[in-house]
Automatic annotation (TrEMBL), chain A:
Source organism (scientific name): Paramecium tetraurelia
UniProt topology in membrane: Multi-pass membrane protein
Annotated ranges, domain Yip1: 69-224
Key words, A-Z: Membrane, Transmembrane, Transmembrane helix
Recorded GO MF terms: small GTPase binding
Transmembrane residue ranges: 84-105, 117-145, 151-174, 181-200, 212-231
This protein's name: Protein YIPF
TrEMBL record, chain B:
UniProt-recorded name of the protein: Protein YIPF
InterPro entries named among the record's database cross-references: Yip1/4-like, Yip1_dom
Protein keywords: Membrane, Transmembrane, Transmembrane helix
Segments traversing the membrane: 87-106, 112-135, 147-167, 173-194, 201-219
Amino acid sequence: MQNFGSNNDLDEKGHVMTDQPKIKVKFEPKPKPSTCPICTVEYYQQFFDIEQRDVYMRIRCSLLSWKPEFYQCVGKNPDLWGPLWISTTIIFILFAGGNLSRFLLEEDKRHFKYEYNYMYVAVLIVYAMAFIIPIILGVIMKYILKSELGVFEIVCMYGYSLSVYMFVLVLCIIPYNEAQWFFLMCGLANSTIFLLVNLWDFMKKNKQTTLIAVPIISFNLALILCFKFYFFRLIYAVDD
Amino acid sequence: MEFEVQENQANNSIQGVINLQPQVNPVQAQHQEIPIKQTDLQVSSTLEESVAVTLLRDLRQIGVKLRCVLVPTMSTNNARELRNWDLWGPLVFCLMLALTLSMSGNNDDGPGIFATIFVLIWVGSFVVTLNAQLLGGKVSFFQSVCVLGYCVFPINLGALFTLFFSFFYLKMFLVIGCFLWSTYSAVGFMKLLIPEQKRILALYPVILFYLFLSWFALIV
């Protein structure tokens, strides 16, 4: 038993001996907790912890959209590599393919005017569809509808649902109206079925959660209408 | 510190002056050799040299690094040279490409194309490097931006050649060749720094980056 400070004995020099324990102080500079953990680069490193084989499996899951296997593919490891580079590839295909499609249809090839606005509009639409809309939906689902899915899992799912458009939009370069509509409809069906099938467990809980299908379907529909009427519009007359 | 003391024997007091400044023995100072550092000489000489000499030296360094990057032989000299990154080279090539492409298009689109290419190169290099770092690659940020910028040089050459030729298939052939050259150089540098299972994930953005730039060089 230790007595702290109650020992009043005197030592040789007449000083009061206090029985204070020697406290060993180890000074370790604590890492400053950053005010915004989501703003640091280190936070995002966990979303790039995948290999090329994983990405291949996830894209394959999204193309075979009727099988609800995406969560088995992803596990506890949603990634952001897929959404980022799939959407960037789609932007390139829209920019290059949209103008190529118009070029193929143009009668007077020497007076073809390249439209650079396609790039800016493509960046706006595709990054909104791949990031902003799933973040909003994810936040609504997690905090209002109390889903177990995190926001980044929804972003990952949306990003991979766009992977079918990489192939569809290349086929849409063929300058035939019916062919373009057919391919875009296939893409819409595949993408929407993928999202609905994988969210089915969440949606069948109650009526409120089933309503989440409405914004999903309407945003996908709006996306392919943008594709058709802005990037792949077929103008048979030369417009000045 | 030195003090002179005078003994005043008259009233048995000591008075003196304390000199606080160090006095160097004049005999010693003549023989003392103050070692002059090499860098001091260099600093004073670069300040005194003419502008042309400075520019030529910088251009020579850019040329040396360009040769290291574009003739992809992995010798230790190359690796050491690349570790001294600089951003002058990428800036020069970026401006050259943006100017070439904005001049060869229509006059209306010129400023738009210049801005697009400039932003594309810098933001693209930044994003591609960040991607490689997030995938766990041991790549230094500015070194990677430097190499990606230097590898834009073949596309620069391609854009300059397409100014002079109007035959489309020849242009396409040239631009494809330059794209393959750029990509091969950049990939050769980056693939050593990424683990095997994630290599394609880090290299695909590099390919996409040069594809974007080559496409611009072709269509304008």
